[in-house]
Queue: 4 jobs
Job 1
Amino acid sequence: MDRFKGNLASYRLQLLMPAFFEAPAVDGMLRVERGAVRRHFFFQRGYLVGESSSEPMEHLGQVLVRLRILDAAGAAAAFDAAEAAGVPFGTLLVERGLVSKARLMEAMEHKAREALFDCYGWESGEVEFRPGLPPLGRAVELQLGLKELHRDALVRLREWKVFWDLFPGPSTTFGVYREFAVERVSAAEEQLLQLAEKGATLSELLAASPEGPLHGARWVLRLYRRGALTPRKPRGPKVGEATALADLLALARGLVEAGRYEEAVAVVGQALERAPVPEAHALYREAEVRLTVALADEVLSLDGRLYFEPLPRPLPPSLTADDLYLYAKLRGSRSVREVLRNAAMGELAAYRALRRLMDADIARVMPDNTTPKRRSRTDPYGVPVYVPSPSGRGLSR
């Protein structure tokens, strides 16, 4: 592919991206710029091997803190040390043993994925492709398949379309009905409810999420489905939708009565995408609670028994961006149950992601009579790294 420059109003990323991974795959740098935000993506043989961004919230240090891989003070001190030494931030973290290479790769991959996915939603700005790669020096390289990234980005676009079709716009304000949010309110949900009670707009609710607008949108959508948040100017059903809405509610009631709660949640979700109907909110709450109870024993049995293999390179194409994000969160937490309960994607979606990680043999369950493995650092290719034990002897597998 020759050098190319255009406007995102005419050349959206979902149209351009297949050209970078369909045979023959091309090497080069893609620049995407809108306003003060400039991002560079480096492609090689159908993979994303590097990414940079001018957005302060996308700094690697910020991502490491959000994923609980480093604390804020440690990240700031390490960044200053890297600047003084003139070496890449990530390289210094690994060389000084502050972060394992495997965990650094998780954070870098998450950072790169989210930056690319965000650019898919841009409808204005500049896009430019330059053949050839600049020397990456001592930087830690990524290896993310462009085909899988494109797949996940299109899923995100559809998710956002459903969200914005549902609410009137960024200036939407909400009525708060706490009687429908008494049970199972996470810290993130409580923050959103408090902001909504003070009259915050939808754009302000999305901006309040420390993990980004997508996670904020997912929390808002879950509160809406429960009936705890209702837009002050709700969109009613369009002409011809009322009959279909009644059919969906009848189907959902039947699924709940049959104990098919997972299917009921999906059907009620479709109904609530059409209009905020009180019966649909009630059915969603009932199906969600019953489904959670049904999953509780299995999820509780995993606490303290899960251990995680390093991610293979390249990553399995069956895993989605949400699966990999959940993997990073689980690796930084002691409680599987708490991570799943507090996942913005929803407990059911998080449970499905965990099952996919287990099917890929990345998340494994130890037998009841097995002592948990103490592995704080592992090379991303599975080579054991010396880990000190309390007795002073090293443990490796």
Job 2
Amino acid sequence: MASSSPIPALKVLNQTSISPPVGTIPETTIPLSFSDLMWLYMGAVERLFFYSIPSITTTHFMEHLLPSLKSSLSLTLPHFFPLAGYIIYSPTPTPNFHYHFSTTNSIPFTVAESDDDFKHLTGDDARSVLRLRPLVPPLPPPSGDETTPLMAVQVTVFPNHGVSIGLTINHGACDGTSTANFMKSWADTCKSGSAASFITPLFDRSLFIYPKEFDSIYLNLAMKFRELISNSSIANSSNKSTNNEAKQDDLVIGSFWLSKDEIEKLKQWVSEEKEAVHCSTFVVACAYVWTCQVRARGWETNRIAWFGFPVNLRGRLRPPVPEEYFGNCLGICVTSAEVGELVKEDGVSVAAEFIRRAIDELRDDALRYVSTWPEIGRTVGDKQPLSVAGSPGFRVYDRDFGWGRPVKVEVVSIGRNGAMSISEGRDGEGIGIGLAASKQEMDKFRLEFAKGLQVLENFS
């Protein structure tokens, strides 16, 4: 159960900004693709990396660890310079949005100290979203003015316990693949003490080939959001989530783990129920969480349950887009099933089959549903779908800044919409799941999750 104690105050020690070294990057403008526009107003991604450093003091961190953290970020930014820039709306000659970097741009960088319970925050039990959110830096939402900042960083010291690095990135800036490349580069540079050799991002928009009518579809959508925000009170808020603070008070994030052995048993279970069907680790893990959630919610059996997740298009397009491509190169995969099918004894197999089919439909034409994604979003949005953030392929637990591997990585932004996050396990194997839900639903979900694992123990 989440802690009911008051939220400990956060002491801000220092607020500054980090820029690329002077003269390394000229003023640059890069157009947004339809995929960038699609995510521009969908909210920022907030991710927390926790590191255990039991003997750490604030003074030692400020004097010995912080300088290399800042300098390595500065050395990394020339390779990922859009993150230090803005997204600019240009009304003429035709309305459009662009990344824009000027030599005066920088990233907000906050250093704070917290006396909150480090063990609780990095545990698996339900933790209040309101306890985790102060550890990620605020980033103004896209507004109706000329510029939109893209990234902010906050480092928080927990004396005698550890450190957290909070990262907030406007989703319009880039997708999880690009963010993972950035974090790997920053961590490797910090650990090595010099500019590390890493995959150099590619910004050439001609590498991402798609029908150009998609640009007009998502430009119109972005313009509608821009107009809405310009004419609403949201434009005057520094954080969208504060408008729903009463609702947020009941939201918690819980952590769940599927070992390598449990994943293999899930795959065997699915393949026996659905002959000749091979499912990936991602598919069976998501199928298991989806069915556990539906059971926990106790919905009527004739209700339709929805599940959706972003898909990396880089390797699915012809010609393929290089993995080094920086920005958003994502599709959306959505599927649904009757609750009655998902809560049956073979519900995991049913769920896996629906998810696998949705992915398979993208093999022949990964962009086949692009023009209908806005309508799908409007249709599904109010039906409490389970959506996914992250990927085991991002290898978030490999991010070592010289202090060892993180003991916990959380995607705090799933607390906005009751989503799930997925990553590799803490030891690099298996799967880690983060789930956001109400306190009552989380308790029920934990029971369903545990019951399912008991069934797996008897499976061979």
Job 3
Amino acid sequence: MGFFKSLSGRFLLLTILFVMLAEILIFVPSVARFRMTELQERLELAQLASLSVLATPDDMVAPELADELLDNAGVINIVLRRNEVRELIISKPMPAPVDETFDLRDASPMQLITDALRCLFAPDDRVIRIIGQPIKGAGLEIETVLYERPVKEAMRDYGLNILWLSALISIITAALLFFSVRGLLVRPITKVVDNMMSYRDDPADARRIIEPSSQIRELHEAEQALQDLQVALSQSLRQKARLAALGGAVARVSHDLRNILTTSQLLADRLEVSSDPVVARTAPKLLGALQRAVTLCESTLTFGKAEEPAPTFQKVVLRDIADEVLENDALRKTGDLVDFDRKVSPAITLVTDRDHLFRILTNLVRNARQAIEASKVAGTVTIRAEQIGEEIHIRVEDSGPGLPPRARDHLFRAFEGGARQGGTGLGLAISWELAHALGGTLELEATSQDGTCFLLVLPRKR
């Protein structure tokens, strides 16, 4: 049974079935035509027997000869109509009443097929009447009565021969198609699959990249596309390996540099109490630069070893999370420049990871608050949400000065998309990754001098 689960096996089975179906569709009209020919031959033999009788003096023959003529024709009686007069030419005693009459002169193809099928499944002892047109113009009509059983047996023998022949043709045709398709399609496809499995085991080995060789255009195009994909993937893996090595080196350098900078920061703290006016003015700037350098080193180390846990999905109330985010961030604000607002219906619920969603909103709200504080102009940070179909659209808006061009160009890219001086852009990069882990998206919907809006779209259900 495993063979028929393969492409070759299923093709072989379908070929046999379709050829057999075609033969069966041919079989029924063939059997109907065979029955028509058999009955027509009986009429012709009956006409010859009637002509033999009419050739005798007084149209009379001995009873023994009459029986022989009827047995030779395979009929019970013969009626010939000439000059509008029906005449019983020769007959035997009727064994039983006539069960059905068939007129072969004006029967349609569908009628012949129907009569043939009825004949195959009718009782064996039926007596039928056949009406036809005499050949060579020897009368207007010829009619005969006969037993249907010999005709049925001849039809069955013919049908069995046709079925055996159809089965043989099906097997031969299926075998030829099977070996042809196996050579033209299955083997090239198997070669591609084998190459994919070999490449999977060691993508770094360039010798395992497929070389297009098929002469079939579609398969050649598939091999070419697979080759391009494997080449691109191998290059990407090599680049990632180099970046990983570089990241390890950067992490080690950042670790040592952080220690050096921390020591320098401690020493620089003493400069603040210097009595030299120049040193006193320079010390805060030096301390700020050192603090930014330490922060950058710590951020690099944190991002390099960050391993996000797999999301744990549960039903949460969005308004509760929004309230917690705003309350926590309100504790971190400096001064009274920033107000917080929440426009989230308590009826909005979704199935998601609570911690991931909390971190996303916290990063977005913190960035919005810091933008307003940096502008030194009072503003508002707002979380609003709405349900659209099977999605929850969450917007974090602020009335700050908008994102600078550099931040827009490198948005969601670590160490490149910082919106404020000294920022690393890690918050947005991590938020983007968390949003995709939850099956959603995070994008910048709008930014201008009147404010910025980030749109977080999450599925309502998992």
Job 4
Amino acid sequence: MTARHERILPVVIGGDIGVYAIARQLHEATGQRVTVLANAPIDAISRSTYIDIEPLPAHAARDEIRDALNGLAAGREPRSAVVMANTDAMATILASLRSDLEPVYAVPFPDVDVIDRVSDKGAFGRICDGAGVRSPRQVVVDFSGADDPDWAAPAIDIPFPLVAKAAVGAAYDAVEFPGKRKIWFVDSAAELDSLWVGLREAGFRSTFVVQELIAGDNTAMRSITAYVGSDGAVRLIGSARVLLEDHAPTMIGNPVAMITEAFPELWAGAERILTAAGYRGFANFDVKIDPATGEPVFFEINPRIGRNSFYMTAAGANPMVPMLADLIDGEPLPRKEVTTEILYSLVPTRLLLRYIRDDALAARIRSLAPGTDPLRDPADRSLVRAALVEAQRLNHYRKFKRYYPKPTDLSY
């Protein structure tokens, strides 16, 4: 820890598990208390012994966020604070506020135009083509003209079952309608038509993508986490084999258990994408291995560190360290590749093993269990908090029984 880090103000915006994990990593990297700006943070945050909570209204406007951050940092010297968040919408807001926040704050996000390019799943497919990596075959459905009574979605020439999701996450976050899901698995034309009606009536006027469904259960998924320095060089990269994903409608696709593993071929593809996009800051990729061909399929890049970034720290590479060295100290660290194998799991091992159909993989899990859960933090010594965290882990039995009672070859 440098003298500068001993004076740093770490700030995180949001109130979910991913925010706690970021706060824990900042605390471990700096030794400082962490300020979380949130409306209704989870108990693991509100009962933390090293997190200070400052209220931020739900759906706070850009100016409110700017004023709150500048108020926290009033009178501080340059490069003495850092702000993090973990939603696409907040990443975009913070990137747009860069000129208002720097030089006091480090803002480890790409520029807005880069976020717009990589976050739009339609544009992402074109970037993948240019980088020589495969992305899912897809059709983009534009709702910008959906107020016209004659509007109709285009014909979809991809065989069912399909996957449908918002092309731009921030636009989808802004609408609400009954049965809303993060990702839609669609088995028929009637289901797809029903989705278009729901989106149109909810006032959604951005773009949706319909993609081919790549077969394989959750264990075919891979996660890549990277930090790209201010000079454009990748300073940290690591990855994990997903074991199990959340299947609750609003959380589907979020891994809840992973094993860190080096995938150099995937890293090379990710770096070509980052270079092509002119990327800076944290990035998280979702990739699936097509069981029919063994070929990796890049689904998306999240312009932020990702909800499960703590798997990097558990494997010995806290992502905050290279970011702080780059943006706070102005002394970029040498490139680090994460190769240590650890189990990262938010769920009980007994539950996890129910979903593992490969005996060798199950043996690896047992050898690494119980693994690391970012919420189980020895620095947070509240007994009440610890009990709530354990209750949350056990609650996964109920959630999986309801939403994903047994593993399937299609992951839904």
